[in-house]
Amino acid sequence: MGKPRQPRYAQIFNDDPAKADIAKAKWAEAVGHLGDNGWITPGRLAVADRYARAYAEYETLYPIAAAEGPVKVGPNGGDVFNFNWSAVEKLNERLAKLETKLKIDPSEDASERPPVSPKTKADEYLD
Asked: Is residue 78 one of the residues assigned to a domain?
């Protein structure tokens, strides 16, 4: 399998270049993670694509939903449920499932990983 080809997010999100940029960055991050671990397969690349698209939607919609809150004033003056809030919740759930499939731990910080100690002659002997 050759080098993975990134989907054309500029065309996919033609109405929003910011979403395209977010999707490109997330796809590269996810594929990099898969490549680092030797997990690149066509199926996982498809999951990485869905992850990048959902992440771009989430990042765009979250500030709107957070500003509006879970309940809005309806057209008749009463309280109504905010569908943007619901969409953000559903995207959050979908992202968690996709991260599980990609074996991505969003709480992991590369700077917090323990340093890898170089192999010693004793390690080489024991191996």
From this structure: yes
